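Job type: complex structure
Entries:
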Amino acid sequence: EPEVTQTPSHQVTQMGQEVILRCVPISNHLYFYWYRQILGQKVEFLVSFYNNEISEKSEIFDDQFSVERPDGSNFTLKIRSTKLEDSAMYFCASIQAEAKNIQYFGAGTRLSVL
Amino acid sequence: DQQVKQNSPSLSVQEGRISILNCDYTNSMFDYFLWYKKYPAEGPTFLISISSIKDKNEDGRFTVFLNKSAKHLSLHIVPSQPGDSAVYFCAASRRGGATNKLIFGTGTLLAVQP
């Protein structure tokens, strides 16, 4: 069964460093998402991406965050200058088409900012 | 901003009995609801969904009920099995919205005792 793949599974970084989290969505999917879950809290929407542009972003997704789909398969989330409070699980998700609302999630990347 | 609430952080049920997980929402614009199951160190896995035009959807041991007037939905698992032990998240979306982003509840930890 096709799945969403995320790498790395765990990323440790120093505060102020840039990180790139990578996702390979399911191949025929067209809509892509990033969510995060801070330990003990709910899963929160960060950003959605369609047709090579951001379609919606939350207030969490400030200027330090960016997304890219550089080669038609990978979907990346970049945090330019990490803060301690960016420590969380980051999940990538995708759906096939707008009418099909079931989002399929990757296993997540645990980001630890020291 | 608690648009989706799961008021029970945990639930313990005996194997073979029914598990009932509850979810409340406040935004009347939501028209599609999903339940996800999550094991530790994994991403959310889609379980079952329901459109706002229905009040019940069944898939094997899993049934979701929607009460629009009460803005309440519930997930019934019967019979419960030890392998069902996981965190269950309720999520809601607006299919007519720009992005179909999911708004998650805080989750309910289900423990099925053998």
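Summary: Chain B is about 0% helix and 55% strand. The longest strand of chain B covers residues 86-93.
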